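Issue: ligand-bound run for DGJ - logging full I/O for the record.

Environment: standard queue, default settings, no custom constraints.

Inputs:
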Amino acid sequence: MFPRRCRNLVFGFELIGAGVLHGKRILWTFLEIKGERMEMRNKFRKSTTLRCDSQSKCLISVVIGSLMVCILLLSLLSPTSRKNEMGQGIQIRTSHHLHLRELQEVEEENIQIPPPHKRPRRAPKRRPKRMTPLIDEFLDEDSQLRRKFFPDHKTFIDPMITGNDSMFYYPGRVWLDTEGNPIQAHGGGVIFDERSETYYWYGEYKDGPTYHAHEKGAARVDIIGIGCYSSKDLWSWKNEGIVLAAEETDETHDLHKSNVLERPKVIYNSRTGKYVMWMHIDNVNYTKASVGVAISDYPNGPFHYLQSKRPHGFDSRDMTIFKDDNGTAYLIYSSQGNSELHVGPLSEDYLDVTNVARRVLIGQHREAPALFKHKGTYYMITSGCTGWAPNEALAHAAESIMGPWETIGNPCIGENKMFRLATFLSQSTFVIPLPSSYPNLFIFMADRWNPADLRDSRYVWLPLMVGGLVDQPLDYNFRFPLWSRVSIYWHRKWRLPQGWNSLK
Ligand code: DGJ
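Outputs:
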């Protein structure tokens, strides 16, 4: 039942296997170095490692392999690495490795795409070009697969029901708050507030009717405001209300309900003691292309709206902010008609940009940036630009947040290829770091947009891990450092390792 193949690699052994468990196909793969299980690799990608297809190549691999083993051993025996090992504690690492292995299992399902049919009456008229049959089905309101993409409200995640299902994430299901209402926090982000030892989730509150302002315009919901939810465990969320509300009457106001307010992100400024929110501010045609800033004394608001502007004088659409370990915060936004990203530090009070910025990922047409940092390296997940339709995520890495940023490939693992090329039918919005006892583990937060009824868009939260080598040719592939690969593992049902949370 468990077919296996084993390949000798340059510096160890890679084992790849598949089996059937509880009726679903599980694919797993890991690297083994000197008998010790190390990191996960993506079975679905081309490998850049050497292959033994002839005797001479084998010989070269063995020689290079031996050299690599020597380098690895030397580095392991060096005082710095020994210090790091001791700092982490060997016993804890072993149990963490066991927990993380569970998260690295991935699931694959067989879905049958129905044969092509005439466009149904209510299908969205404006569709991006070059779509796969899966995305065609996804955007078709009458698709037989609708329930698979948007499971009905009977299968919700309810934090008030304790028992076997407690603490499990079910990506794509309706997620209720502690009062039993669907969470409204789309395009959002999460902060951990050290002062209250509480997580806060901010996002677009979209609980209104979806309509098209113009025949060719994108589906939209009038601005209602920014929703805020609090949690001690990242699973059960209490509604803290709308912390930044729409302007009902003044049509000239940025937050007038007829405008666009997207992708709010909040950081805390320890110098000023203020919580600062940045967001994408636009008009109905997305031509204002600005960022807005709001401020509050408390994580759960109310936030006071300050102003909007075109950062550094450029158009700005999808955006995020990132607070570095030294307290410097950065704004990252899609610019020049979404063809590139710009990144630059904020002022010390986080209320404005400075006059420093860099253009990165030029010509790559990426949006929905979600940044995180791991062992001194900056990583970013982005999406392509196809409106509300899902597309392929890419991971990028950089030694300095100001760039250069290098694209290191599609991080999605599991399900089937169509799903991986569509980020499991979702779009990135944020990456949540976990407490330091799990330094390699993050939560990837994404939105499964429902353009037919945006309020019913779903959340796709999945484990994201950093480790192993990237396995596709890179722009500067003879240059150190070799980036670690970023992996987002598909699960229909999963939970964080028990004991991850010291807050309870
Ligand atoms: C894609 C962006 O990522 C979303 O935030 C939103 O602006 C949609 N486009 C609108 O079509």
